[in-house]
Each structure stands twice: as structure tokens, then as C-alpha cells.
């Protein structure tokens, strides 16, 4: 069945003006895709961290984990990737950076021509290749900063950085974002999520609550970085950024 995008979303194709994308549109696309991929999502949610004894002991989770199902946060987890996939990744060559346990790359693969998904954790990648069967995903083990600065320039249409930039120090975070931008083609898209508080006090307090987070960018700081490396961007609800190279 041919996918017919929501009327509201269709107004943005093929190159949507980023400043018009807002949280309502993200929610609309997610709801539409949730209905469309109902069985796939139910299958994905059957996987839990508790059910596997071979996962790395880092900040890596599955949407099917009990705490996310009970709180409803699993919807936010899925929303990041399903919006990115449906709105920007259809038939595109996609990079999923710091892919963790791979469920996000698996969702992107439902739309993309191909997905390269990399992470530094061998255990996580073994779980990914065993759990998420999709012929158009390549699972790669690599250090993030080395991978994005390895000289592979303008090879992807879309690069995803979901819940990743906060794991780098401030300078390395800039190197990471600059490297991702270099890896996408001209007019390519970079999509990322994190928390981007309005001021440094809130950002530092938020960072201190999580031992795996190295630096939380404020909304001003991330916007300044995106202005440096990209031609345009939008920051949605201090949570998701979408930038065009």
C-alpha cells in the first residue's frame, strides 16, 4: 500500500522549510506511522533489557522496558526515529550514529534505502545483529569521534544523533556535530535529540543527575553550533534539532 503522508506533512515535501516543523507535526507523523506499523511496534516492545543477560552496563535501554511502558515514555523514544524515518529518510542513505541497542536503526530501516549504524560497544552490536533482522542495515563497531572524522565526506543523505551529544564534553561535542555534518551531502539533514535547557544553571544541574552525561548544551549553545556548520535549523521544544547542511 502506497504511503500517503498527512496533508499537513505533504506541504513540506520535498524540501520542507525547517522553521515550520513543530512538535504538533512530529506528533501527527508519529501517530500516523504508529497505526501503519502497529504490528512491528508491538513486536519491538516485546524486547526488554531484563530479558537479555548480554547487554553492556551503560545508559542503553529498550522502549519495551517496564519503566518506559508504565510512564508512557516509550512513545517519545519511538517518536524520534519514526518521525525522522517517515519525514526525511524514505529511500535515503542514512547514518545512525552511536546506535546503542539498535532498535532506532531498525525503525529507520523501514523507510531508508540503507542504514549504517555504528556504536563502540561490541556487546551492543552483537545484540543488534542478532535481534533486528533487516537486510538494509550494516552494523559497525567504531569510536564515534574517530568515525565521524575519518574522512568519509558527503556519503549520507541523513545523519541521526539521537540522545548522543550529551555524552561528549563541550569541545568533543562540537567535533562530533561538525563530523556528522561533513558526512552528509549538500542539503543533507542532521537530526538529533537531547535536553537543551534555557540556561547554564539548569543544564549543569541536569547533567549532574546522570553519570553518563558529560555536557548538556543550552538551547543557545546548540543553536550557535548548528548555525556554524549548517545552513538552517529548527529546535523543537528544547528537545529535537533538525538541521540542513
How would you describe what is shown here?
The chain is α/β, with parallel strands linked by helices and 245 residues long. It has a domain at 80-244: Rossmann fold (3-Layer(aba) Sandwich). It is 42% helix and 17% strand. It has 11 helices and 7 strands. Helix 7 (122-131) links the parallel strand 2 (114-119) and strand 3. Helix 2 (23-36) crosses helix 5.
At CATH level 2, the architecture of the domain at 80-244 is: 3-Layer(aba) Sandwich
What level of helicity do the residues show?
Answer: 40-55%
- Tell me, what's the shape? globular
Unreliably modeled segments:
1-13
CATH topology of the domain at 80-244: Rossmann fold
> Strand sequence of the main sheet, in spatial order?
3-2-1-4-5-7-6
Question: What's the CATH class of the domain at 80-244, please?
Answer: Alpha Beta
Reported for the largest beta sheet, the result is: 7 strands, mixed
Number of helices: 11
Count the beta strands: 7
**H/E element sequence:** HHHHHEHEHEHEHEHHEE
Rg estimate, integer Å: 17 Å
Mean pLDDT: 91
Distance between the termini: 32 Å
